[in-house]
Every structure is written in structure tokens, then in C-alpha cells.
Amino acid sequence: MWSCIIGTGASFNGGVAVALHGDEIVVAGPSKILFVDARTRAVAATVDVETGASFDGGVGLAVAGDVVVVAGPRRMSFVDATTRTVVGEVGIDTGAHADGSVGVACAGDMAV
């Protein structure tokens, strides 16, 4: 067993989402996406994102090819997993409170 200290922007009451991208573990919180190298167990990159979730809220995370999608109650961010840059953001209204949780899934070229 191993551990790695990360900073996702979530409180102890908040929620994070986890997905896999190649040899990396992708962890998303309300304000950050972290790419953790599964072999070295080190944070390879950190990307700031906007989700509209508070630090007590939860986010959804999905991976479609080389694009990582993180969604919160008010905003959805798209991050290029190879360049580690935000390539797009979309304002959304899920009806969830900032302390609530949302989910996201990818089907082909669409994120829902």
C-alpha cells in the first residue's frame, strides 16, 4: 500500500473523483485536477479548474481519449491530458447546490 499527499481543493467533507489515463491516476476536486504517476507515485501535474462546487461539494470526472472532463454544479472544464492545459469551459446549470454533487460521463465525443 502507498499514499501520496495531494491538494484537490476539497475539504474533509467534500468529494473527489478518480479516473485512469494511461499510467496516470487522475484525481479531481472542486478546484484542481491532479495527474499522479502510478509508477513513481508522485504528482506529475496540477491544473486549476472552475467547477462551481464549494470545497464541501463533489465533482464528476470522466476521460475521453486525451481529454479529461470535470464537472461541478455550475461549470464543466475540459483539460488536455497531454499538455495539462484547460482547452475549454462551459457554464452549466445542473440545479445542484454548490455543496451538492454531480456526475459526468463521456460517450464518443460528447460529455453529459
Quick structural gist:
The protein is mostly beta strands and 112 residues long.
Essential attributes:
112 residues, mainly beta, four-stranded antiparallel beta sheet, 45% strand, globular
Could you please describe the fold and organization of this structure?
This protein has 112 residues and is mainly β. It is built from no helices and 10 strands. The protein has strands at 17-21, 24-28, 32-37, 42-48, 60-64, 67-71, 75-80, 85-91, 106-107, 110-111. The strands form 3 sheets. The protein has a 4-stranded antiparallel beta sheet, with no helix packed on it. The chain is globular. The chain starts with 16 loop residues before the first strand and ends with a strand. The mean pLDDT is 83.
What share of residues is helical? under 10%
Shape: globular
What count of helical segments does DSSP give? 0
Mean pLDDT: 83
- The string of secondary-structure elements, in order, is EEEEEEEEEE
Q: Report how far the terminal alpha carbons are from each other.
A: 34 Å
Summarize the biggest pleated sheet.
Answer: 4 strands, antiparallel
Structural class: mainly beta
Report the portion of residues in β strands.
35-45%
Let me know the number of strands. 10
Strand order, main sheet: write it out.
Answer: 1-2-3-4
Q: Give the radius of gyration.
A: 13 Å
Q: List low-pLDDT spans.
A: none
Which SSEs are present, and which pair or pack?
Elements: E1 17-21, E2 24-28, E3 32-37, E4 42-48, E5 60-64, E6 67-71, E7 75-80, E8 85-91, E9 106-107, E10 110-111
Antiparallel strand pairs: 1-2, 2-3, 3-4, 5-6, 6-7, 7-8, 9-10
